[in-house]
Design a protein that fits this description.
Layout lengths: L3 E3 L7 E3 L3 H6 L9 E4 L3 E3 L7 E6 L5 E8 L4 E3 L5 E6 L16 E3 L6 E3 L2
Parallel strand pairs: 1-9, 2-3, 2-10
Antiparallel strand pairs: 3-8, 4-7, 5-6, 5-8
């Protein structure tokens, strides 16, 4: 059985990187909140100083894969994904990522907490 996870619970703000510049910069700016990359099947961690946790989302917002502690200098590809949420490992421990299960639906609403990156 899958459940709907409100990833914005506890007022967690997520930055949406929908422009080319925002996608290229990604979390290199040391953002203090997770980054949502719509229309994304691949990411890299070149230039990162710490590992990332990744939630890969399918077309309906369901978690199709999760990668924990992706070290700097790596590439990850998920052909099933339509988007990905990146967390700096310092933001969310590997144990905290256990709350997200494959098949769970991720709710990225309300829109007022999904902020566009410049």
């Amino acid at each position: 059985m899958t459940e709907c996870i409100n990833i914005l619970e506890h007022n967690l703000q997520i930055i949406a990187a929908s422009t080319l510049k925002a996608r290229l910069v990604g979390l290199l700016k040391s953002l203090s909140c997770p980054l949502f990359l719509p229309h994304c099947k691949a990411i890299h961690t070149f230039g990162m100083r710490e590992p990332l946790h990744l939630l890969w989302l399918g077309a309906e917002g369901q978690i199709v894969r999760k990668d924990i502690e992706v070290k700097p200098g790596r590439i990850r590809i998920c052909l099933k994904a339509k988007s990905v949420v990146e967390f700096l490992s310092a933001q969310d421990s590997a144990q905290a990522m256990d709350r997200y299960k494959i098949g769970d639906s991720v709710n990225l609403h309300p829109h007022d907490q999904l902020v566009e990156m410049d």
